[in-house]
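Hi L.,

As promised, Glutathione reductase:
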Amino acid sequence: MARKMLIDGETELNKHGGEEVSSNFEFDLFVIGAGSGGVRASRFSASYGAKVGLCELPFNPISSETFGGVGGTCVLRGCVPKKILVYGASFGSDIEDARNYGWEVSEKVDFNWKKLLEKKTNEINRLNGIYKRMLSNAGVKLFEGEGKIVGPNEVEVTQLDGTKLSYSAKHILIATGSRAQVPSIPGQELGITSDEALSLEELPKRAVILGGGYIAVEFATIWQGMGSTVNLVFRRELPLRGFDDEMRAVVARNLEARGVNLHPRTNLTQLIKTEDGIKVITDHGEELVVDVVLFATGRAPNTKRLNLEAVGVELDNIGAIKVDEYSRTNIPSIWAVGDVTNRFNLTPVALMEGTCFAKTVFASQPSKPDYNNIPYAVFSIPPLSVVGLSEEQAIEQANGELLVFTSSFNPMKNTISGRQEKTVMKLVVDADTDKVLGASMCGPDAPEIIQGIAVALKCGATKAQFDSTVGIHPSAAEEFVTMRTVTRRIAASGKPRTNL
């Protein structure tokens, strides 16, 4: 049924169709949170004819209960500034490698952290402005302040001066993301999270990083690449729990080869302030004195101040909002997308969920997010990127035999530079159907290469189709279409094993 829209006081038929919207509401949609998911949902909903309001906290590079910013975690204090620092850190090893390519580089090479920090801050300020203009151009009404839900169809926005504004909406979308967590140990106030790590006034000469996930591994290579002494402390045998075990081992070897000190099966028990820095005590009795301790111990859904319990929105045991396959909560007028739902916490996934929400609610196109074959990357130096199933996941799900193909080689650039660092690639294939179930790569340009492989897996590519594809020579990427020899064959009840 076509729905009527209120535009500048006039009633107009929405050409895209959809549900009937009551004129009693001030907005068709009100969004809380202007990160990737919220901005995408707002813009697309507006493009389908919805009257959209959106609220976000005032901008600050370091988030808190009172500061955030249009653009959200990824743009302002996550993926984008982190990637800028990764680029900055990469130049150190590139300069080293350049000497063997004939470049006469002086022995002393200085790094100016403050200059890079200023450039990074300028860029996120620019992006914050761009996102605001995108919303304005889409016709989305932006409110600066903290939003909370006071009824199934009512949002309250508290402005900086404490003034409270109330708005009614046919639909409310929560897209408040997540926030870094700090472990409960004595001296925890001496540590920092990734927010502060991206805005440190001084580059730490000595650092301890607690955690074994994306953020921990990435900052370990960033700071080490800039000349810091880095100790990476994590509870498991290998970093990057949940990734393919074989590729985790490759990342660990690369970290050690580049000079990161690994402390597996280790945790921190106490931080103590001393004249020489922060004394870090581990559960093995080790003592390290450093300038900075980074807690990269996970993130929690940002739901505490939204008043959700009072309205009746259901949360899970970690505070994430429960939603159905269309991103709808148990309250029919309230929806949620992105990290706040703790489904698949990646920026492009939040974008997908926001798009599907807008199509479902305002374009008469019921759309479910598809979480199959989502590619992702760890921007370590060199990076790791994957799509589809790991070997362990494939074994768990397999009904028949699996074929595993691997390739480990010295990148062409390293043959001249002399750097001893292998690129490793891997394909996991269903032996019965010949379908490629997963692809992994650790090495230069891995994310750029895996993005293309992801299209193939999304289309259901077989190993035979990979084999029949002509490679680009000379490139690392061509290895994905020239791996002909099975590294190992695994029965459905088999256990993964590696030969690397």
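The chain has 13 helices and 24 strands.

Thanks again for sending the construct details.

K.
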